User: Which sequence fits this backbone?
């Protein structure tokens, strides 16, 4: 009877906790304003994307997340949305 030799190999892996790697941004529905209007964030949201690809919590946009909106003068405005120290910009 022939014996089969057993071969083994070893390697190391690091296991860490999943973390938020990116955000998915959905712009608010309203894109046109008149002078003096206040911003309408309805339909706007941010969803966490983890390093594993899993989607995390979804957050509706709030006024504290945005900067750059000014309806006192006409023109195209650049709005920046900040969430957990990650920024995304939309025009």
Assistant:
């Amino acid at each position: 009877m022939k014996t089969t030799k057993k071969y083994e190999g070893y390697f190391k892996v690091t296991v860490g906790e999943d973390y938020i790697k990116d955000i998915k941004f959905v712009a608010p529905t309203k894109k046109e304003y008149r002078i003096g209007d206040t911003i309408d964030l309805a339909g706007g949201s941010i969803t966490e994307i983890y390093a594993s690809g899993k989607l995390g919590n979804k957050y509706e946009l709030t006024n504290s997340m945005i900067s750059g909106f000014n309806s006192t003068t006409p023109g195209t405005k650049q709005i920046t949305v900040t969430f957990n120290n990650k920024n995304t910009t939309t025009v």
In short: The chain is about 0% helix and 35% strand. The mean pLDDT is 88. The radius of gyration is 24 Å.
